[in-house]
Amino acid sequence: MDYRKLRKNIKKDYSGFPKVRVALLSDQSPQYPAQSIRAMAYEYRIDAEIYEAPFDSMEAEALDPASGLYAFAPDITVLLPAAEKIRARYYETPPDEREGFAGREASRLLSIADRVTSASGTNVAMCNILETDDGIYGSYAASYSLSLLSVLRSANRLLADGAASRPALGIIDIASLAAEFGISNARDERMYYLSGCAFSQEFLFLAMDRAVSYISALRGGVKKCLVTDLDNTLWGGAVGDVGTANIRLGESGIGKAYADLQAWIRELSRRGIAVCVCSKNDERAAKEPFSAHPAMKLGLDDIAVFKANWHDKAKNIREIADALNIGTDSMVFIDDNPAERGSVRAQLPEVAVPELPADAAQVLPFLQSQNFFETVSLSGEDARRTEMYRDAGRRESAKDSAASLEDYLRGLDMRCAIEPFGEYSIPRVAQLTQRTNQFNLRTVRYSESDIKAFAEDASCVTMSVSLKDAYGGYGIIGAAILRGNNAPAACIGSGGSGASGRSYGSRALFLDTWLMSCRAVKRGVEEFFFNHMVTTAKALGYERIVAEYIPTAKNAPSKDILPNMGFEPAGEGDSKMSSEGDATQWELLLDSYMPKPTFIKEEAALGCETKG
Amino acid sequence: MNRDEIIEKLQSIFREFFGDDSITLTENTTADEVEGWDSVSHIQLVFEAEESFGIQFAADDISQLTLIGKWADSISEMMAGNPNNK
Description:
The structure holds 2 protein chains of 2 kinds.
Chain A: H1 3-7, E1 19-26, H2 31-43, E2 47-52, H3 58-63, H4 68-72, E3 76-80, H5 83-92, H6 101-120, E4 123-127, H7 148-164, E5 169-172, H8 174-181, H9 183-186, H10 189-195, H11 201-218, E6 225-228, H12 239-242, H13 253-271, E7 274-280, H14 283-292, E8 303-309, H15 313-324, E9 331-334, H16 338-347, H17 360-369, H18 380-401, H19 405-411, E10 414-419, H20 426-435, E11 439-440, H21 448-456, E12 460-469, E13 472-483, E14 508-516, H22 525-539, E15 544-549, H23 561-564, E16 568-569, H24 575-578, E17 584-589, E18 600-602
Parallel strand pairs in A: 1-2, 1-3, 3-4, 4-5, 6-7, 6-9, 7-8, 10-18, 14-15
Antiparallel strand pairs in A: 10-12, 11-14, 12-13, 13-14, 15-17, 16-17
Helix pairs in contact in A: 2-11, 6-7, 8-11, 13-17, 18-19, 20-21
Chain B: H1 3-18, H2 39-53, H3 59-62, H4 68-81
Helix pairs in contact in B: 1-2, 1-4
């Protein structure tokens, strides 16, 4: 980290960046960390206004409601406790009283954090403590619970546990950062004795970078997607040239570095980061290693969107963002080729494009040190989000790559289940009648009890359709109600137009409701569903289906479905029908119906899913 | 490296650090005469000089460096003691 260059940020123009009020509480000297926070914030495009609490005033500021801290009204408070203070208290504690020392220190810090959270109503980012030993117990310090080393380690563990149950508290893990950087490089004894700040200049920037990264993440500045190149990034060699069998990937040598990188990327995918491929390659060649190379850690299942083509990478990245419905500023792009990196950086400056080391062995440790995937919390949502990205992205990319709509639909591997309304589907069907606007023939809204009445009426045929495809399940996405002649109009709360009260003759069913969620139209589900309606009606001995289209401001998409299914206009000469304004009447003779071809397989009983 | 050369190099270090090319250092310049040279930047300036001259001050000597002439003396002394700088 070029801290000298970063330090100069403080002279730059921050205007135009959102202002964030950051209070810094420390039990050491605050000036240097404050300067580092301000300078690092520039890198995150944040105008951090810093409140430096006076030297060694962490506790006093937190506890006093009239302190400068609360007068400042921070958006976030950073706590920076000094290991030296803890060490000093440890030394002042007689050895026979050190049992519980770590717990007391952790409680003290957690109660400061709690106080700040409740009094200022803001999040707290607390740096943990550098785990330095004092050499008193030699190697035994690691196992002796009352050594300075063990005490500091325990305190850090307890802080982490405390934060786990405090959503407003984040731990900035500078202890592990220092372990990686080297504790002797992280500390500066001369700084400590001269200024009261024990950190080296460079380490301060590293540590405060983490604090600012946390602040940025709290404000939603998180990365959601990793876009990766393939050749010489995920494996060695160009698969299009050398073939799947000859790419460098495996258990030994540099091939292992690529496998290790893949395993890491798979972990990101498991965490909820959308992993996408963007490679200049023929798609078939590019995908082959994923399915055929035994050492691949990443499978096609781990990839949300797979772009292997000869288009500009920035264009592909934009399309990936669209497919996943995320901003390009939440994406990280890795590519071994400096020209590709430069091109993406130039066209999409908001995408994070790390300057990867040329040596494949260095790429993974470099990426791990970059802290791209900051997050302030995890929830069950995250795992589901991966699934969601994956479904959305894969459908989108299948659409792109399929030579025709037909190939696309075939590739979706769609399976539908159709069932009469039942206990599990009634709430969802009612919800669909209330919410569906576009594909809805008559837009009659029904309550749950209305739907239940239809379900229980022997003269009504009810059916819901649920859909699954290769990329996931949709739950119930369509419903139909066909009413026989004997169905009393009174059983329906809101009757719709006059057509519902008419007689169609004993051989006809009236299509009272046909609606489809727009998530699933244009994929053949409507044809599949209607085939089923006809089959069912025929099996029950009916000869005709009578239908009505009532136009609304929003249901134009369903205007053509009746003629498309083979319905003929009806009602000529019937004054009652022609008087119904814009509504149009239709009729289908079941014997004349030709089942429509679809790419959907019938599946039994998945209809109890009720996906909202 | 003679005193004048050392002071000239210090001047460029100060200019770079403060981003201010109007800074002029002489034997007799003190912290009061350079805008921004305070107790916080003092240590950082010393670290920059150490890096540049390939030397390291003892903690206790850092706070004595109030006058640029003293910087030059100390730096000159330390460089003489370091065979790499001859």
